[in-house]
Amino acid sequence: MSSSTALSARGGKLARLVVGLCWLAVLFDGLDMFIYGSVLPHLLETRTFGITPDEAGDLGSYATFGMLVGALAAGTIADRIGRKQLMIACVTLFSLASGICAVSGSLTVFGLGRTLAGVGLGGLLPTAISMVSDYARGGRIAITIGLLMTAHHAGGILSAYVAKWLVDPFGWRSAFWVCVLPLLFVPVLLKLLPESLSFLVAKGRTEEAEALAGRYEVELPPVAAKKTAADRWNALLGLFRGGEWLQTLLYWLASFGGLLLVYGVATWLPTLMRTGGYELANALTFVVVFNLGGIVGMLVAGRAADRFGAPRIAAVWFALTAAGVYLLSVHMPMGVTTLVVFLTGVFLNSAQTMIYATVSIRSTPDSRATAVGWTSGMGRFGAVFGPWLGGQLLAAGNGDWGFTAFALAGVSSMVFIGVAALRSARQPQAGHDRENLLAAH
């Protein structure tokens, strides 16, 4: 074996180790994120804690608000303590928070658990994406991150089976006890997960970085130039200069509607299907099918955008998402409904990523990270609003309007991203960073 082949094999081993560990961490992230929606029909039917639909919507929003806090804080904290330590802290936090939910004796304590879980969930995903980006082999960053993103939807599938198998015989608390089990994964991360090479180099810990790189025979990353607070502020102001304010606002509104749709449907899908006359077991099966569609969508969307253009695919994806979500309000034969749920999952779960792709393409290289980051941040307010909206509709006795309301959010995102793309006179930038797009989800 030649030396170059041996080096490639060793680098590939390190990449597989990091991606595998991060994939499992994101799997647990997805399980904890989706478990609430999977047990929610049971909580409402049994009136656990006297919960009402509007209170259930509030609880769903607590977790997404926690995710907003976690996502916003992740970068700063990771720069201080390291990506490995932050990943471990996030897994520990959302696991312990699920334990709070499992032992809670009141709606207030349960809500505290879901909020804390959201902070851990929101901090984990961008950190894990940064980790795999560090160690992905040359030219394979995008596909590696796409693979990582499938873990989130695999966690959604697992949440449905946990609810189907455990809630009826053992009660809803058992589902949250399962979400505590990722604590057992923490020692594995401590022992096996290497620290980010980029973090070690940036912190001047060159001996550690060289030892790690030498052990696996990989190259050290270059030292990145540090941006000052003034640089970041100027980059943000640049999004509003020279008439760019309208373009920026359109992107933010599209992102708001997109994440309202994603987290609203993720929280309320089983309950709305149950309200629509489907058996609980079938409603949970739809969660599995929906997330299978999400996995397929993540793998298909990037290729479609490369071929036809991200702005065009973003608008088409949201139109198809809106159509699919609206059709779910119609009681159809089981086979047809299952197909619609699958296709809706394909388009809905990747439509938001197409917004980030469009923003990235239409941004200059020096403003790209800021533009995508702020588009994601503004969109997360939609993630908080979506679960609340579903609860309000059910509380008002308008559950049949739930899917219609979410479909309208899809239509609005289609309009906003379409108008923004038509207004933009910039040419697509070659070689945009797909890892930044996925990290923003």
From TrEMBL:
<feature type="transmembrane region" description="Helical">
    <location>
        <begin position="371"/>
        <end position="389"/>
    </location>
</feature>
<feature type="transmembrane region" description="Helical">
    <location>
        <begin position="401"/>
        <end position="422"/>
    </location>
</feature>
<dbReference type="InterPro" id="IPR005829">
    <property type="entry name" value="Sugar_transporter_CS"/>
</dbReference>
<feature type="transmembrane region" description="Helical">
    <location>
        <begin position="313"/>
        <end position="332"/>
    </location>
</feature>
<dbReference type="InterPro" id="IPR036259">
    <property type="entry name" value="MFS_trans_sf"/>
</dbReference>
<feature type="transmembrane region" description="Helical">
    <location>
        <begin position="17"/>
        <end position="39"/>
    </location>
</feature>
<protein>
    <submittedName>
        <fullName>MFS transporter</fullName>
    </submittedName>
</protein>
<dbReference type="InterPro" id="IPR011701">
    <property type="entry name" value="MFS"/>
</dbReference>
<feature type="transmembrane region" description="Helical">
    <location>
        <begin position="141"/>
        <end position="163"/>
    </location>
</feature>
<keyword id="KW-0812">Transmembrane</keyword>
<dbReference type="InterPro" id="IPR020846">
    <property type="entry name" value="MFS_dom"/>
</dbReference>
<feature type="transmembrane region" description="Helical">
    <location>
        <begin position="249"/>
        <end position="269"/>
    </location>
</feature>
<feature type="transmembrane region" description="Helical">
    <location>
        <begin position="59"/>
        <end position="78"/>
    </location>
</feature>
<keyword id="KW-1133">Transmembrane helix</keyword>
<feature type="transmembrane region" description="Helical">
    <location>
        <begin position="85"/>
        <end position="105"/>
    </location>
</feature>
<feature type="domain" description="Major facilitator superfamily (MFS) profile">
    <location>
        <begin position="18"/>
        <end position="428"/>
    </location>
</feature>
<dbReference type="GO" id="GO:0005886">
    <property type="term" value="C:plasma membrane"/>
</dbReference>
<feature type="transmembrane region" description="Helical">
    <location>
        <begin position="175"/>
        <end position="193"/>
    </location>
</feature>
<dbReference type="GO" id="GO:0046943">
    <property type="term" value="F:carboxylic acid transmembrane transporter activity"/>
</dbReference>
<feature type="transmembrane region" description="Helical">
    <location>
        <begin position="281"/>
        <end position="301"/>
    </location>
</feature>
<keyword id="KW-0472">Membrane</keyword>
<dbReference type="Pfam" id="PF07690">
    <property type="entry name" value="MFS_1"/>
</dbReference>
